[in-house]
Amino acid sequence: MSWQATVWALEAKEVTPTQKLVLICLANYADGKGVAFPGQKRLAEDCGVSDRAVRSNLAKLEELGYLTRRHRYRSDGPRTSDEYQLHMEVDYRKNVPHELPEDNDTKTGGLPEAGSGHINLSEDLTRKNLCTARAKEGAKTVRAELEGVMSPEQASAVIEHRNALKVKLTPLAARLLAKSLAACDDVQEALEMMVLKGWRTVKKDWVERERSNGNGTYQGGSRKGASNSNRREAAQAALRGHSRFGPGA
After folding, report:
1. Which fold has domain 1-91?
2. What angle (nearest 5°) sits at the alpha carbon of residue 25, between those of residues 79 and 140?
């Protein structure tokens, strides 16, 4: 995965929300040269849309110049997934300055050039500042996506849980997780199960299966054993606060 491709896709302007989502998901599979070849069914699953929606939005993105598609075929003849070339060399952002404003955060901190009175921007420092700014913006986006379906305390617990698993949440992953949680009957119960079971994410059918097996944590009955009881209490404490979505939301 190329983080440059993902950042480029996130900054795309004058596209519809679905087109941007497809572009971001596609960028997640791109290499350093912006080449990717995920199947359309995989993209549809990642985006949470239909195969038809993926096809139509890919066609529109190609029409807009964001990518070029090339058909691929197996050695024995059948067609396989298309190859996508993302045109990352083209900046499609509108009304976005191509250079950082000169301020105290982006100056090198070194001595000014003779007779200039200004300090030149270091290329390495500029890149570092860009990465830092994007990382901070990404963290804000992750929290905003989560807090759309849960309390700030619960969002903090989820972020800590993912960090403990060494699988940090990206803005896209946070959006997909929030969408999955919103589909659950009880967000609090789903979050507790995610922590207790060590899941990276959670699905409505996973929660229903655990509940039917007598492994519910919030409403689905008690878990056997002192250790499980302690774990349940720890999860409930970590996820304290009320969900913004009540049962049946």
Report:
1. Arc Repressor Mutant, subunit A (1.10.10)
2. 175
